[in-house]
Q: What sequence folds into this?
């Protein structure tokens, strides 16, 4: 019985660690999404005064999206592959 309890305890610890890792990743992705939404809103607001469909707007959006992704990108954790 003690052996089973020990095994279940270790599994529970692993699950809690994995939940914490996933929670942090979800927070980071949510923050990145919020930043991108804000940038899209700012670009669309600033472009509403310029000609509709201008390529300048899509270039701004593309560049700011890349910057946001680069800012939020963290080095890959080898443990994430599990």
A:
């Amino acid at each position: 019985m003690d052996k089973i309890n020990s095994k279940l305890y270790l599994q529970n610890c692993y699950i809690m660690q994995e939940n914490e890792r996933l929670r942090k990743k979800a927070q980071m992705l949510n923050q990145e999404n919020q930043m991108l939404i804000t940038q899209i809103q700012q670009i669309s607001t600033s472009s509403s005064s310029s000609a509709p469909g201008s390529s300048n707007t899509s270039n701004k959006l593309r560049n700011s999206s890349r910057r946001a992704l680069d800012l939020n990108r963290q080095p890959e954790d080898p443990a994430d592959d599990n």
Remarks:
- The chain has a mean pLDDT of 81.
- DSSP finds two helices and no strands in the chain.
- The CA atoms of residues 39 and 64 lie 7 Å apart.
